[in-house]
Amino acid sequence: MSTDTPLGIAVIGTGRMGADHIRRLHTVTNGARVAAVADLDPDRAAHAAHGIDGCTAHTDPAAAMAAPGVDAVLVASPGPAHEAALTAAFARGLPVLCEKPLTPDAASALRVVEAEARLGRRLVQVGFMRRYDTGYLRLKELLDSGAHGRTLMLHHRHRNPATPPGFTDAMLINDSVVHEIDVTRWLLGEEITAVHVLRPTPSGAAPAGLGDPQLVLFETTGGQICDTELFQNCGFGYQVACEAVGERGTARTGDDHGLLVNADGRWGGTITPGYVERFADAYDRQVQRWVDATRRGTVEGPSCWDGYAAAAACEAGVRAQTTGARAAVELAGRPGLYR
Ligand SMILES: NC(=O)c1ccc[n+]([C@@H]2O[C@H](COP(=O)([O-])OP(=O)(O)OC[C@H]3O[C@@H](n4cnc5c(N)ncnc54)[C@H](O)[C@@H]3O)[C@@H](O)[C@H]2O)c1
Ligand SMILES: O[C@H]1[C@H](O)[C@@H](O)[C@H](O)[C@@H](O)[C@H]1O
Fold it and tell me: Potential cystine with 300: which of 101, 146, 225, 293 (Cβ 3.0-4.6 Å)?
């Protein structure tokens, strides 16, 4: 496409993330315009399109993708709706930025991998935005440099102030730990081979029936052990951090977001209230890189294979949650498109 023409994007799902991406595409991202939006809720779709020149509102995702001026799709509907949206985008040959998770289970994620492999070219970038966060990028660079020798362990921390209504034990893995699964595979360049889940007595702040917090352990093909403290009702703010332990050094990201102030007999900084604030730069960079690559006619970033491998590890995680035993990750063969 001409470098002067902005990329026309259809945004599918205009809830919390969809609305934030629409704002970003409209006011932050260079070279993009929101050409159409779709939401099952017509009022929400109309509200999202309001004030954006030429943007049409739809309740059917396929109709939004067929709207005039649409060159690409950003999927921000809930995970169970992603496969249908991706199938509609594939039918039109449209490039997609798909919010995580690719799909909520391994079987549907594998169907997406196979459908894209049949097309013979990549169309999808999965929205694993931590890969675009400055701190994680610096950590990756350090680990890849080999300065600390081989990486032996990763310690992840993932705390949210509160879970939305209806959040389940399985969602703790599929919606939340999926980020640590992706970041582990990406930082180490290894697959996850097995998952363990340990469950302390739940916090008094956890909604009834939710086993929060949990300690999730991954084993990798490279023999590393990685742990995640997942605490989704910590009450005090949003904290995501990762410490890598190498043979000759350690490095940690995620502790020092913002300013550390010492004054009036107190020390400390602020904690971001949620992921929108903590990962604002990462979302901006992720979307800009996707728009730039799409305008060049290329696809970069996390692939459908990454989305499938994460879904397979999540499935093992949910099995480990329910049985209390180590659960092995079963991966299908990797199609040539992703090698
Ligand atoms: N990367 C991140 O940090 C991050 C953060 C939050 C959410 N997410 C992901 O973003 C996606 C959306 O999450 P959210 O928090 O914005 O959810 P949300 O519930 O706030 O919004 C989802 C919207 O999609 C609409 N919708 C439902 N089914 C649809 C369909 N079939 N077609 C079109 N619209 C449909 C709903 O009416 C709603 O407006 C999920 O995949 C979620 O996992 C990612
Ligand atoms: O959907 C959200 C989102 O992916 C956030 O980045 C994560 O921190 C939350 O745990 C999850 O529920």
Answer: 293
Ligand lying nearest the CA atom of residue 178 = 2
Is the CB of 231 within 6 Å of ligand 2?
Answer: no
- CA of 18 relative to ligand 1 center, distance in Å: 7
Listed in order, the ranges of the chain carrying CATH 3.40.50.720 are 7-130+281-301
pLDDT in tens, 199-222: 999 999 999 999 999 999 999 999
Pick the CATH number of 7-130+281-301 from 3.40.50.1450, 3.30.200.20, 3.40.50.720, 3.40.50.300: 3.40.50.720
> 290-316 as b/e, with b when 16 or more CB fall inside 10 Å?
bbbbbbeeebebbbbbbbbbbbbbbbb
Residue 295 has pLDDT above 70, yes or no: yes
Judge whether 136 and 253 are in contact, CB under 8 Å.
Answer: yes
Span from the CA of 76 to the centroid of ligand 1 (angstroms): 5
pTM of the full structure: 0.96
